[in-house]
Design goal:
This protein is of the alpha/beta class. 55% of the residues lie in helices and 14% in strands.
């Protein structure tokens, strides 16, 4: 029987397992012996964020993280290379074979040498290894060793692989292997990805498109020999590319979209959405809203627009507020940390006032144009989750934002919690 789990619950399971596996008694000894710690095996389609979620779990647990794919390893490189050494027993000398420390084990030692005595060793594509590697893999999963070298205590094993229907190199595990691992079947989850995308500051059109086309987060179609595939990884890579193309003024066209979104129908729908976004970006009403605080013309646009067009307007507003927030938030961070001396704090505070005024104008526009429904909820959440706009929001109260946040969410904004959240994001490099 197979139970499918979303990527958010997977992270929770990993963190719980780390806590259990690394628990110690009063003498500092691990309560669970290493050979009894079943490795976790994440089974799911490519590109849904398995590696990312394991790394996030390690960071949130405050432990090290080492990632390896086994598909480029031979049996010899995995167990170490043979070396001849001189040995002496009972006064007699003879030559003996010893094996060097394999690259994977060495990477763990390197991490330990940098102060991370505990961590997660993430081994990817374990069900795609060659026939000659099967015995090595079984030994690793059961005994936590590669050849004669054991993974140090304090390191939790998490592995991953693709189902056979997604990867022709993949194989199903036999009963002997299955009895030594914890299989977690992972499925794509749009809600979790949207939260992740907002925190990462992905391109607003990508985030809002997935929010309104949740099935597009993952597409896998086979038609004869043709394969159509769309993954969360593809959406993130497209987001980064769109930012770069817009920065340098390059043309974004359908062929570019299909390089990342490899399903014609999904790519076409997104391209139409992005084209609408570009048209609206040149609209004078949006500029007046953001530069002059005149929200009524833009709110009239929202009233007339269809669903897709309203979301495109949200994207434009969020992007502009986000772009304005990047430099300003960085200046405040440097000022508070003492990195930037001689700063005109009065000037910075005036800039912060202006940013908050722009935010208030945008909120009035959305409230009057579409009310307090899904669009407003999305806008409020996006401002909070973005590390730059969230930081500026945490610095100063905004009566309109605070009122709407409470009306939409049923609870007031916790600014202290927001500051702590942003601080954690910055430490993790998000």
């Amino acid at each position: 029987m197979e139970y499918r789990t979303n990527i958010s619950d997977v992270k929770k399971t990993i963190k719980e397992s780390v806590r259990i596996y690394l628990a110690k008694d009063e003498k500092g000894n691990y309560l669970m012996p290493q050979n009894k710690q079943r490795p976790l095996f994440l089974l799911g389609p490519a590109g849904i964020g398995k590696t990312e979620i394991v790394e996030q779990a390690a960071k949130e647990c405050g432990i090290g993280f080492v990632s390896y794919s086994l598909t480029h390893h031979t049996r010899q490189s995995a167990v170490g290379l043979p070396a001849i050494v001189n040995e002496k027993y009972s006064g007699n000398s003879y030559e003996s074979t010893r094996y060097t420390v394999p690259e994977i084990v060495d990477a763990v030692y390197q991490c330990i040498s940098h102060g991370q005595k505990e961590g997660i060793l993430f081994v990817d594509e374990v069900n795609c290894v060659s026939e000659t590697m099967l015995a090595v893999m079984l030994q690793f999963l059961q005994n936590k060793t590669f050849g004669t070298h054991r993974i140090p205590q304090g390191w939790v094993i998490v592995s991953a692989g693709n189902p056979v229907e997604y990867n022709r190199s993949a194989r199903r595990f036999d009963a002997v292997t299955l009895d030594r691992i914890r299989v977690i079947s992972v499925e794509p989850d749009a809600n979790t990805w949207i939260q992740y995308a907002e925190k990462k500051g992905m391109h607003p059109t990508v985030v809002s498109f997935i929010r309104n086309n949740r099935k597009s987060i993952y597409v896998f179609k086979k038609k004869g020999k043709d394969l159509s595939i769309v993954t969360p990884r593809g959406w993130e890579d497209l987001s980064n590319t769109l930012k770069g193309y817009e920065k340098f003024g390059y043309k974004v066209d359908m062929p570019l979209i299909t390089q990342f979104i490899q399903d014609e129908e999904t790519a076409g729908t997104f391209y139409s959405y992005y084209e609408l976004y570009k048209v609206l970006l040149k609209n004078g009403e949006i500029d007046r809203l953001l530069s002059e605080g005149d929200f009524r013309p833009a709110s009239e646009l929202l009233k007339r627009f269809d669903f897709q067009s309203r979301w495109a307007v949200m994207c434009i507003i969020l992007k502009r507020l986000g772009d304005d927030g990047i430099i300003l938030s960085e200046q405040f961070r440097k000022l508070r940390s003492g990195e930037q001396s001689g700063t005109d704090t009065g000037y910075l505070n005036r800039q912060l006032d202006q940013w908050h005024h722009r935010l208030e104008s945008c909120l009035k526009c959305i409230e009057e144009g579409v009310g307090k429904g899904a669009e407003m909820e999305y806008f409020l959440s996006s401002i909070c989750c973005n590390p730059n706009t969230g930081y500026l929001l945490a610095l100063r109260e905004n009566q309109i934002y605070d009122r709407l946040y409470k009306e939409v969410n049923g609870t007031g904004l916790n600014r202290r919690g927001l500051k702590n959240q942003i601080s954690r994001q910055m430490k993790r490099g998000e």
